[in-house]
Design brief:
The chain is mainly alpha-helical and 324 residues long. It contains 16 helices and no strands.
Amino acid sequence: MEDDITSESSEPEEAEVGGAFAGLAEAALGTLGDLAENCGSAFLPYLEPSLDAILDLTQTSQRSELRETASDWLPEVGVAMAREGVAGTGGGVAFPPRLFRRILPSLLAALADPAHPGARSWAAAVIGQLGHALGSEATPFLADLGPAFRLAVGDGDDEVRANAFYAIGRIGEAVGHAHHEGAWPGAELCSHALRPGGEGPGRVRDNAVAALVRQPGLPWQRALPLVLGSLPITADLEEEEPVLRFLLGMGAERLLPHIPELVGAVGPGLALGRLQKDLSQSLLALLRQVGGADPQRFRVGVASLDPAHAAILCRMLDDVTGSQ
């Protein structure tokens, strides 16, 4: 007769997410994510105590790997609850507004924690991830998020500012034009960071320019000079594609007054071959168009590049440069 393993224990074993052993805590967090994903609504009675334990861990742990694992767990449980259509969790959106409302005070407290820049950086990133997952359902939370991110973009820690702009971009993209005018200062904060004398080259500026192109309703006449003046992307290469696609969307006519800046902005990514094929081909076509319209200013832009990058770009554009 086979052993009946279900009779060995009538109670589920406990997993201590706040224990002294980091490996066990990480494993416990992973288990909670699996339970939420696979149990659906059956996990609901354990949702509140699990949230309490996770939020306490994110507040008290100084181990970055635990905060990262906790941040992975939050979207997992939210998506699971939404998928099951659990009452009050906002079925049909990627993250339930009810859960976001439940955890937002703790996230905002971590974002403002003066003693722990790691916690501030983590909180900014998680708010961005969850705010993006909320979609237009993030709109009611903008009144609380706006003032918090006004402070975060002035943080003395580079990583905190970088993740603050990451979050501003994701939230702005999520709410689109659903936000009320003036309720979300995303475009204002990004513009301030990208002004002359603002953020220098690096991840903070990369995230700020990527956040700017994700903000709804910003006039292109204001956005375009700021974007061109903040390129090329130098540190956070994941943000390069959305920014360059923004430039493509401007079209040749709007970019003609900015040919040298355009070449300097897109040249490194093209020369280093780090762009997707369709994006690379579209940018090369755009450069051919503007280069043919104003060869002299096009050469000024090429001359501004690193010589090795300039040589590669010229070979890619030999039908333009060879005739000049």
